[in-house]
């Protein structure tokens, strides 16, 4: 992800890449050469040499808390790659350590042009929304094919399901007042998980998770007169009442030139550092989504 973030920030007006740190100096040196930036041996030396305004943290889940703590020792703004914690307890410790600092979390799916266009299509719709999130995870494949540690795989709802569960808080209005399990999570026999999410605005969400089985990631938001669908999540369509036509949502060229969402997210990060309006998730906002994950899976 480090390279993808560097690409996204490179060339933005008023932004200069200042330096990089990695656990392996060879990796840092390689990226430094590619992007014409110096590699530093530690976070402290990176800050002392650059006095950078923003640091982006892209480390494995089990390293996030320790690396974030080192970053919090300096006055720059911090953008943590999601998830900001491998479970709710870890996320809580990171959130608490970040108190009084400008810390954001990189929910790049919030920055997808499909997400932004779907929100735009709903701007003047006051009617209740039914939000359905379809998730698919495979803990065995996470360890076998992607090299995830067992502890991360055990908590894969925080490490990976957070990508789609966060959509409830993007499209649902008001506060979440209830999370009701329909088919509860069984860690001994992972399978189908279904939960109802209720908002005080009248919006209702339904989470459908298929664990250790095949399935897509998808999102639908349904109102009496509009239905929006993101499947795959990088694309979207709009269907109006009394029609069968699927109207494609406009997708930004940035989402094809860069990893989807990252260019817009980088622009939002630059705006945040300058004290301008932005759409980044704060560390507190991120924690609320982590809490929702815990509630859906009965882990609080």
Automatic annotation (TrEMBL):
SUPFAM superfamilies: NAD(P)-binding Rossmann-fold domains (SSF51735). One of its GO terms (molecular function) is nucleotide binding. Residues 2-106 form the Gfo/Idh/MocA-like oxidoreductase N-terminal domain. PANTHER family: BILIVERDIN REDUCTASE A. This is Gfo/Idh/MocA-like oxidoreductase N-terminal domain-containing protein. The lineage of its organism: Bacteria, Pseudomonadati, Pseudomonadota, Alphaproteobacteria, Hyphomicrobiales.
């Amino acid at each position: 992800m480090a390279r993808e973030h560097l690409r996204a920030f490179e060339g933005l007006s008023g932004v200069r890449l200042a330096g990089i740190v990695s656990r392996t100096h060879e990796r840092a040196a390689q990226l430094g050469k590619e992007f014409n930036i110096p590699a530093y041996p530690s976070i402290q030396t990176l800050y002392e040499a650059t006095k950078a305004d923003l640091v982006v943290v892209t480390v494995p889940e089990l390293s996030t808390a320790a690396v974030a703590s080192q970053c919090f020792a300096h006055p720059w703004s911090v953008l943590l790659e999601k998830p900001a914690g491998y479970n709710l307890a870890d996320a809580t410790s990171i959130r608490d350590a970040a108190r009084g600092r400008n810390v954001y979390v990189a929910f790049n799916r919030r920055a997808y042009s499909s997400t932004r266009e779907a929100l735009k299509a709903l701007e003047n719709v006051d009617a209740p929304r039914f939000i359905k999130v379809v998730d698919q995870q495979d803990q065995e494949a996470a360890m076998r094919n992607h090299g995830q540690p067992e502890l991360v795989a055990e908590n894969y709802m925080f490490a990976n399901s957070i990508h789609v569960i966060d959509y409830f808080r993007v499209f649902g209005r008001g506060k979440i007042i209830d999370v009701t399990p329909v088919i509860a999570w069984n860690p001994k026999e992972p399978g189908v998980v279904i939960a109802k999410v209720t908002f005080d605005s009248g919006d209702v969400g339904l989470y459908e998770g298929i664990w250790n089985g095949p399935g897509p990631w998808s999102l639908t938001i349904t109102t009496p007169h509009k239905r929006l669908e993101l499947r795959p999540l990088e694309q979207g369509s709009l269907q109006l009442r009394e029609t069968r036509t699927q109207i494609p949502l406009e997708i930004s060229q940035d989402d094809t030139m860069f990893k989807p969402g990252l260019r817009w997210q980088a622009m939002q990060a630059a705006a945040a550092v300058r004290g301008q309006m932005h759409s980044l998730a704060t560390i507190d906002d991120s924690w609320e989504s982590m809490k929702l994950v815990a509630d859906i899976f009965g882990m609080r």
